[in-house]
Amino acid sequence: MPTVFDMIREAIEKKRIVIATYHRHRRMMCPHVLGTKNGRAQALFYQFGGTSSSQLGPPGSSENWRCIPINGLTDVEVVDGDWHTGNRHTQPQTCVGHIVVEVAH
Q1: How far apart are CA 95 and CA 64, in angstroms?
Q2: Cα–Cα distance measured from residue 57 to residue 88, given in angstroms and rounded to the nearest whole number
Q3: Helix %, strand %, coil % of the chain (to 5)
Q4: Which DSSP helix (H) or strand (E) runs through 94?
Q5: Residue 97 domain boundaries
Q6: pTM metric for this prediction
């Protein structure tokens, strides 16, 4: 059985959607970067659906980026669907220090 880390890696490589629960919220997200920071596995996602403790902005909004520790995700599914991403911003991502895989643009 694949680990959550492996599932997210495959989702990035194939531009697939991750549906998972994090902090009691069911989220629909597109993973963009996966790796570690300070020894902890985490990923940078673009959340486009589901719920969140902070409201989602409009489609393409930079408010919808989420940096999530992998061990906090439960009920993880990887599914096909339309790829979502946010507007480019001028700041480099700081979510992941050691990148294992990132989405090809």
Answers
A1: 14
A2: 15
A3: 15, 45, 40
A4: none
A5: 4-102
A6: 0.93
